[in-house]
Write a structure and sequence with these properties.
Blueprint: E1 7-14, H1 20-30, E2 36-44, H2 51-79, H3 84-90, H4 104-113, E3 117-121, H5 129-132, E4 139-143, E5 151-152, H6 155-161, E6 166-173, E7 183-190, H7 197-221, E8 236-237, H8 242-250
Helix pairs in contact: 1-7
């Protein structure tokens, strides 16, 4: 099918220099510029909370030593100037700031950009009807877990914790109910017998970027296949606790 007009895409994501930046580095280096136009990127605070609250959350998961390693890596990334904002600037992509994707002023501004699709990449906020209905073809989300089994937070951790042999990366339509929209595409990242969450998360972000490109190309040509979810098999996972981390390590895995 010949396509004359590029697909207009707006991204909504979170400020994460370690993992989400990997997604954008891969996407922006590979996406077909004759098929897609990225009209903007909106970057929110991680978990949609204060930096102190995020630091406390990460410290509780990784412990003092792991937390120190992550902080050192974040500082190094910042000194190198590696960030989603810097990547966007290098591509001439506009940043569209907001404190909430559900703010009426933000929704109105996004509509002026006339996106065909909004792509959520680790967006830290639940999308309500107004933003879900803003793009012509709707909103899609990239989720590093098999749906509906691994709905919720930290799906890579929970798949490793459950003894899965691979992480399932899923692109799905966004719906008012969290992680419940129809699946548009999947990809897989192998989990080694003794692996690190850090390595698998990075691999999943790279694979996810390639998957998003594939799904967007299918949306552009009208060849995308939708697979409705059977929510009878649905589970929801929250942020891991100390007992979950112990069980994760007992499987031979490590966080970093």
């Amino acid at each position: 099918m010949a396509v004359s007009t590029p697909l207009r895409i707006h991204f909504i994501t979170e400020d994460d220099p370690l993992y989400v930046t990997e997604f954008f580095a891969t996407f922006l280096s590979l996406y077909p510029r004759h098929e897609f136009t990225v009209v903007g990127i909106s970057i929110q605070d991680p978990f949609n909370e204060s930096r102190f609250a995020t630091a406390t959350r990460v410290l509780s998961l990784y412990g003092p030593a792991g937390f120190a390693q992550l902080v050192a890596r974040v500082v190094r990334r910042k000194l190198q100037g590696r960030s989603i904002a810097r990547l966007a600037h290098g591509e001439g992509i506009a940043l569209v700031p907001t404190r909430s994707v559900n703010d009426p002023h933000f929704v109105a501004r996004v509509k002026l950009l006339a996106p065909d699709v909004i792509v959520s990449v680790a967006a830290p906020e639940i999308f309500k009807d107004a933003i879900l209905q803003a793009p012509r073809l709707g909103c899609i989300n990239i989720h590093s877990g098999r749906l509906p089994k691994y709905r919720g937070m930290m799906p890579t951790f929970w798949q490793m914790r459950s003894g899965e042999r691979h992480v399932t990366v899923t692109v799905h339509e966004m719906a008012p109910r969290l992680d419940a929209g129809a699946v548009l595409g999947t990809a897989w990242c192998p989990i080694e017998e003794h692996d690190s969450l850090d390595r698998v998360m990075i691999a999943a972000k790279h694979e996810g970027a390639r998957l998003v490109i594939r799904v967007l190309s299918e949306l552009l040509t009208g060849n995308v296949e939708r697979q409705e979810l059977d929510m009878a098999d649905a589970s929801y996972y929250s942020f891991p606790r100390h007992a979950d981390v112990r069980a994760f390590r007992q499987l031979g895995h490590r966080l970093i």
